[in-house]
Amino acid sequence: MTAPVIDEDVDAGYWRARAEQAEVRAGKLEAEAAALRAERAGLNARVAELAAEVARLQESVTTLSGLLFGSSSEKGGSPSRRNGRGGDGGGDGGVRPGGSRKRGQRPGGPGHGRRDRSQLVTEERFIDVDPGQRCCAECGEPSEFLGTEDSEQAGWQVKITRIVWRRRRYRRRCACPGPRTACAPPAARPVPKGLFTAGFLARLAYEKHVLGRPVHRIVMALAADGFDVAPGTLCGALKQVAPLIAPWAEAIAAHGRTAGHVHADETSWQVFEDVDGKDGHRWWLWVFVTSETTVFVMDTSRSADVAAGQLGTGREQSQLEAGRRLVISSDFHKAYQSLARIDGVDPLWCFAHIRRYFLRAGAAHPEALGDWCDAWTERIAVLYRAHHALAATAPGTEAHEDAAGRWQRAFADIDAHRILQASDAAKGLLHPAAAKVIATLNNEWDGLARHQDLPQLPLDNNTAERALRTPVIGRKNFYGSGAQWAADLAADVWTVTATAARHDIEPLSLLTDYLQACAQRGGTAPAGAGLDPFLPWTPQGRARRRSASDPRQGPGP
Predict the structure, then answer these.
(1) Model-level pTM?
(2) What span, in angstroms and rounded, lies between the C-alpha atoms of 334 and 186?
(3) Sign, CA torsion 185/191/192/195
(4) Are 363 and 87 in contact, with CB atoms under 8 Å apart?
(5) Helix, strand or coil for residue 284?
(6) Residue 285 and residue 469: Cα distance in Å, rounded?
(7) How distant is the alpha carbon of residue 267 from its chain centre?
(8) Would strands 326-330 and 261-270 be described as parallel, antiparallel, or unpaired?
(9) Residue 511, CB half-sphere, CA atoms under 13 Å: how many?
(10) Who is most buried in 22, 64, 250, 528, counting CB within 10 A?
């Protein structure tokens, strides 16, 4: 048997080809592995991105849920653990020094005593003893009258009257020259030929804008008291009152523009009227609170030029009058940041707002940031307590010096932790939500730290937020305004009534007196010195305030 013949060249070529095929397959596999690794890295990055998005959305849901369903004010317990760890509480964000307490009179505290209601119209009614008890049951001797044992009740009766003015006319019997007849002048009316008295129109404006009752509910209330009136009739009456209130509100706004310190805020408002150059129906209601005025401005814009126009800088936002300085307490909205760049304007950012950022981060991430949130809210609480202590002491006293030291130390503590945690955030050592809050604190620190040099001013902007409560209640009840004139009237009435309330003047009586003055002027608004009795900072206005606080002094001039 012969041995097979082996062709070494063919055999080597065969294995060489097999090796090349193996290399090709290995290259393909390596490429596929690299592609899979890259795909896995991309998927991991996408997973991390989606996880971050979920965390961000969860944070938003927690924050919005707290705003929608949370308690109306910040109260009770540890701030970050309240309402399931968090809840910035909405409301005005007030911080009570020394912790929260229950509402109402403190146990053991002095009461206010029995209220004096002698100013009410008094109606005496008598309850007598049964005739059989007025004499002796044995001998029949009549009992001696000893007087009465008195108690009080308050009745509530709404009385709507129909006033018929009968103007007397006279005719001369003589033949002398001149008019033969004479007639008494027409009754004074705020609106010429109008149906309603000054008191009715004042109560209508008060019911709608101060008490927040929609017109259809006012109609129902009037019908229950026996007066049937159409909603359109009341709307027409309010429209006729609007030009009478406007000059009064403008005089208050003009006085507010001279103040050196103002609280400012804004909220959305719906005006269901198409306006040229305005898309949609979303307007903005601004409020500016000074020591003597509360001014509301309704505008289509949320831009800084609206605030600049009321604050006396001019809508072009150029500069203040020479030598004038203006301190603005507000939140961090970009409109106020824009105003802060004007020479002479000093912003005071709101500590209650920055506190809410900490609370919301703690509520959104209770496990990771609960203790961190507690620590920051406690630092801010210490600052508030120091601020109250400083205000409660007289300058030059030892107690005042001690309070001033606490005040400076509270700021130094916040500043030190701000810088330290900003460094941690830059190194990636801080939770992303916490780093975001610290970044906001850093960005706004100059406006927050300015409080250190102005301890006589509030640490927050709660004054402006509280001023917006009445309009916000009205917005919830009647959804906004159906026309531009109605929106402007709402802002003007709030300007008048909130300013009156700021001076402890009852707004309804002030509105009534003002509209009565309009009636005496033939249905036109007072001007110049005629407005002085209705401006609380004038001598006539101060006299009205004194008479309001003590009814025995009689009405003001």
Answers:
(1) 0.81
(2) 55
(3) negative
(4) yes
(5) strand
(6) 12
(7) 8
(8) parallel
(9) 29
(10) 250
